[in-house]
Amino acid sequence: MRSLAARWQAATLLFLFILPFVMLFGVAADPSLLFSGQIDPLVTTGVLIALGASPLIKLPPFQNVAANQTAVLPEIPQGMIYEGILLQLGGTFTKAQITGLRLWLGGKKIWEITGTHLDSLNQYYKRTAGATFLQMWFANPNAFDMASYMAGAIDTSVGYSNFWMEADIGGATGPTLAAYSLRSAPRDKDPAFRGMIRSILKSINAPASAAEFTIPVPMGGRGGALFRAVHYFHTNITKLQVLKDSFPLLQEGTNAVVQYYENELYRTTQAGLISWDPTQQNDDRDAVPTVKGVDSNGQNVLSTFEHKVTVSAADTLTIYADLLTTQANL
Question: Which of 47, 98, 175, 226 gives 324 a disulfide partner, CB atoms 3.0 to 4.6 angstroms apart?
Answer without folding.
Answer: 226
